[in-house]
Amino acid sequence: AQSVTQPDIHITVSEGASLELRCNYSYGATPYLFWYVQSPGQGLQLLLKYFSGDTLVQGIKGFEAEFKRSQSSFNLRKPSVHWSDAAEYFCAVGGDNNDMRFGAGTRLTVKP
Amino acid sequence: DTGVSQDPRHKITKRGQNVTFRCDPISEHNRLYWYRQTLGQGPEFLTYFQNEAQLEKSRLLSDRFSAERPKGSFSTLEIQRTEQGDSAMYLCASSPVYSGQETQYFGPGTRLLVL
Fold first, then answer.
1. Which of A46, A51, A95 lies closest to B105 in CB terms?
2. What is the distance of C-alpha A38 from the center of its chain?
């Protein structure tokens, strides 16, 4: 079965600085990869997804992620963070069986 | 598109009581999923339906848990004889069926506290 590791439990960045959140996955075949964001007390909102094709995918709110098969990674990036980006970010991997596995999440704090 | 809705948003109950949660998926979505999320963790898969058929259940879903989707539209998740360890956020998601893995869209969740 597939699994996801998010190595960073908590990250703090200054507003306007760049951001990279790490995600490593384990899956025997071509994975389906997702990044979701969750604000306190809320459900999950999809930021972006990778199914196939171009390995650099663009998402909402200025986020992008790059699929690197050789590194089994799908890191999330944003060039300039806004205070409203403070939230919990979850990477997830799905397989052909429609079963999705989430990482434990990375909490982002944005300093003014 | 009204999104996935869940009711209630919050539930406080005493240990040993039964609780039931409802999920209304996006109207054209055939698949419906239930997840549990505890504090500081990502969502954990519980079960999913394609139309009214329950196709997969996680080992996390003990015999005190039952889920139904009788008409292939809304779904209910019932927990019998609740325990303090059941305290969590219960998330519902839905997705369309085209082929293979599809994007799941999540509701706001029901936060359960068992006293």
1. A46
2. 11
DSSP state letter for A30: P
* Cα B115 to Cα B100: distance, rounded to the nearest angstrom: 41
Spell out the per-residue pLDDT of chain B, length 115, in tens: 579 999 999 999 999 999 999 999 999 888 999 999 998 899 999 999 989 999 888 888 889 999 999 988 999 999 999 999 999 999 999 988 765 567 889 999 999 999 9
SS3 at position B98: coil
Q: Which residues of B touch A97 (CB under 8 A)?
A: 56
Angstrom distances, CA of residue B80 to CA of A62, B16, B67, B69, B83? 44, 7, 11, 18, 9
